[in-house]
Amino acid sequence: MVFDGEEAAHGHRLSTVVPSSVTGETNYELSDADLAFKLHYLRGVYYYAAGDVVRGLTTKALKDPMFPWLDAYHPVAGRVRRADDDLQAAPPRPYIKCNDCGVRIVEAKCDRALDDWLRDDAPDRLTHLCYDKVLGPELFFSPLLYVQITKFKCGGMALGFSWAHLIGDVASATSCFNIWAQILSGKKPDVSSLEPANTPRDHAPAGAPPPRSVKPVGPIEDHWLVPAGCAMACYSFHVTEPALRRLQQQLSHAGSFELISALLWQTVAKIRAPKEVNTVTVVKTDMSARSGKSLANEQTIGYVETGSSPSKTDVAELAALLSKSQAIETDAVAAFPGDVIIYGANLTFVDMEQVAAYGLELKGQRPAHVEYGMGGVGEEGAVLVQPDADGRGRFVTAVLPKDEIPSLRAALATTLLLRDA
Amino acid sequence: MAMASSSGQMKRLKPLYQLAVNNILAVVTVPLAVAVVMKVAEVGPEEVLARARSLQPLHMFLAAFVPAAATAVYLMLRPRAVYMVDYACFRTSPNCRVPFATFLEHSRVWPGFDERSVRFMTRLLERSGLGEETCLPYAQHYIPPSRDLESSRAEVELVVFSAIDDLLAKTSISPDDIDIVVVNCSLFAPTPSFTDMIINRYKLRKDVRNVHLSGMGCSAGLIAVGLARNLLQVAPMGAHALVVSTETITPNYYMGQERAMLLPNCLFRMGGAAVLLSTNGANARFRLARVVRTLTGAKDGAYHCVYQEEDDRGNVGINLSKDLMSIAGDALKANITAMGPLVLPASEQLLFALSFIARKVLSGRIKPYIPDFRTAFEHFCIHAGGRAVIDELQRSLTLSDEQVEASRMTLHRFGNTSSSSLWYELAYVEAKGRMRRGDRVWMIGFGSGFKCNSAAWECIRPASNAGGPWAACIHRYPVHIPDVLKH
Description:
Chain B: One of its GO terms (biological process) is fatty acid biosynthetic process. The structure holds two protein chains of two kinds. Chain A is α+β, with helices and mostly antiparallel strands. Helix content of chain A is 24%, strand content 25%. Chain A has helices at residues 32-36, 52-56, 59-63, 66-72, 114-119, 125-129, 170-184, 241-250, 256-272, 315-324, 330-335, 405-414; strands at 10-17, 27-28, 41-48, 79-82, 94-97, 103-110, 145-152, 157-164, 215-217, 232-239, 279-284, 300-305, 327-328, 339-341, 347-351, 369-375, 382-387, 394-401. In chain A, strand 17 and strand 18 (394-401) form a beta hairpin. In chain A, helix 9 (256-272) packs across helix 10 (315-324). The mean pLDDT of chain A is 87. Chain B is α/β, with parallel strands linked by helices. Chain B contains 16 helices and twelve strands. Chain B is globular and about 100 Å long. The mean pLDDT of chain B is 91. Chains A and B meet through strand 1 of A and helix 5 and strand 2 of B.
């Protein structure tokens, strides 16, 4: 089944919420690490089953807590500007002007029932529930966050967040949304202060080679979208706990992220043959290594290289490479002076296992399902490995060229990943 | 040199002159009384009594009866004093807030406004004197804004009911005590009317006299007060009149591209006020001294000055003529001419009369004397119609910055809330603690027609607590308002 026309979300109505008090003349400086991610957009959808709680959550009830929420997160309500007085850098360095312009809220309806929608595994299920916009061509008027509230025929609801990666990584985004949910439920959460980013350190010299994990692009003017080589699509699937355990017994005792990534690395390499996929980028979230700032891009970025063709290498060996032989390049990526893409420069594996996505409880109701995808991914594709609803299995979203999706689905049906015990 | 010293002498003499002329009655009667007493003393008390007994009984009766009858007739025919028990303004909430950047972005993002219109609105907003906390109703936070009937009613209910709730709490009267309800809202007149909405919500009595004034413009608040005052003259003594002034923004957003009609979009914001008037002065806070209404609609230019019409594409909006400021100036002069003799002290009136005669005799070689209204009023509430209106009035009435501060700060914090802006300004003066017993307030409203209405109030009791629409932000005011807002 394909999501099309009336089947998907329709009847979009746009409005804006702003911080409840005047922020004043404040600028939020973007660090080098932030700017490295400027071409990517997190797309996360939270699904809530129909019931009394959801019925009581009118649009106004969802919007009202956002006003005090944005007081704490005022950069999220700001807009990207370029420094006028920076005469050396060309084009001038972007920053966020905290002018209280606000967050865009999109209201939509879907004529299908929530359960029906979740059972349907057609690709791009995610993109219908997140407002598909990027920063630019007018940066002055481009919101950094869109929240789409989609009401299903059965009374269920989906909240789709479209978050500009430059303001923070997925851990920052999920904790930001969780704070909103806490305010909605009547609590007064503590938000750690928004510290300005460190001043830019010395950049790598102009002629230096780019880090292996990323791909330079550009020059990107004011439309922050990866130049599209081909159309990309999101495809999501669930790896149940029994399936995961079976994989670990039969293939390798590596961690779940490494195992799933290795399996997908091999699958994609086979699909893309004869083109080699010898290098992959790995982006990890390590909650213990974070600085505690509310908004930051603090994921570790690195790459893994294999000597032999991954389609012929053992999965266990690939998993071992992923867990032990990762070359970390986080600082090099931040120091690189040009515009880059990170997700999709090489086939990218994103470790989201430690991200507390299911913490977005609305008045005590946990989401039935959460899935995160990515916008602005390069041609090589990205795979996001996330926790599932009970935390013991894994949920995987693959962002790949549209043409590769059917082959991926066919391959997954036959591999151990989806066959149940 | 001679001129400077003579004008310096004039300045020193002026207070003496004012004291003399303003208390002319005392200046005349005191010497007369002294003369009588001295005469009586000279003649001797027995002689006075003898003369008194020689008067005929009829003359004595008339001498007693006539003054008593005259006094009684005078007291009966005098209009009843009308008091303001209290007033309450709609307190805006942060979830209706519209920052400057958001307003601009909405105009830009919606494709119905072209490049020129957006640039025009940007320039307007930069120079408008509005701050970052003005509020628009819920429906206008949508792109494009909703203008339907249900959203409009929702806005009315929010503004009017919360203002009345605050008023009832402040005055501790029950809805059963309300005898008269007058509401003014110019641009939204659903059926049933706002007054019926109020009667339904608060379960008012069956015999309440209710009137809804629509289409009367931004000065209609004082028209409503005047009407309530008139109704109180014929109502039972001690009756209560509820006056509600508001303007509904939701149905009136202009969606076209005529520049003269885009101005209201940029300036008008959500607001409302509820006022309780009564002929019972107990517990009242202000006394209504005068209401003066001036109309200039007989002249075509003034009539077409603020005109609601459709543009070429059928979008309805309010067209503001380029001559707005000069027409407003003329209307103000007419109002001052009517108001002046009623409120100015005798000293100023004499000076004005002398200057008027002198100008006529000397064919205009003397500058017109502008009466100093600071001798008549301590506080000025000028309709916050826009920065230009306040500037113009400050200039023509020669008011100081502090005297127009209430108007400028209300424009900054609340925008142009139409007829209720005068009440927000009064609330500012009270929130700042500047109101004293006996202070006189002049409220001046302007509106389509072209009308200029004013009201004079006298304070009996200043506000005792710090509640009201300014409570959360008064500590930040006054603010400096730049000529052009940087953004």
